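Input/output pair, single chain:
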Amino acid sequence: MLVYPSGIDLSSATLRYLTDLLAARRREHGTRWRRLTCGRQALLVLAHLRCGHTYTQLAAGFGVGVATVYRYVAEAVEILAAHASNLATAVRSATRKAFVILDGTLLPIDRIAADRPFYSGKHKKHGMNVQVIADPLGRLLWASPALPGAVHDVKAARTHGIVDALTDAGVRCWADKGYQGAGGTVCVPYHGRWDKLSAGQRAVNVSHAKIRALGEQAIAALKTWRLLRKLRCSTTRITDLVKAILALHRVTSR
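Output:
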């Protein structure tokens, strides 16, 4: 395999953050020596998460075995996932905002037609449903654990307790038509055909769409981590991957 230098569009602060976490883990476990230093392991993990490089590519680039790459990535993801913000923290942060935007996104996965629970009829592909909360400027506040793609957005929001948490905190929330009937403080556009709505209702829907469109920026920010654009790992690992990326995103967005 040919190897060439490449770059990662992340700050050195992100690299230092992950390096420090890995160094702390090694001290905790009393690790004496590894093939890669903490800094090189952190760089390997960031290349995997941000650029979507495969284990084989990383093994060739860093001069280690594929099994070693897997262990390095799994260790880092576990550490980062433990440092990710939870829903309660996100809601506390949201109380200082005028409102939040709730939206769902599908993370494509590599599955066959027989895996019906993971098939999204809306997107016509297999994937995992992740709920995203953004602030009024479209900045990512929180991303939920992953559910099978067949789960509807409003059901996913209820499963994660998002609606109840926002309602209890008195935080107003804008969402699309996929959250019809969510209740609480969730505001959705008027339902029905455009030509059947009154002029006032159409105006409200236009205003609502302009606000909600900012939530797409948060989803776009999440998917700048290219690994999430096509996941080929076990579905049981995807939640930890999302949490790990959420923890790193908090550092990159400072």
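The chain has ten helices and seven strands. Residues 87-223 form one domain.
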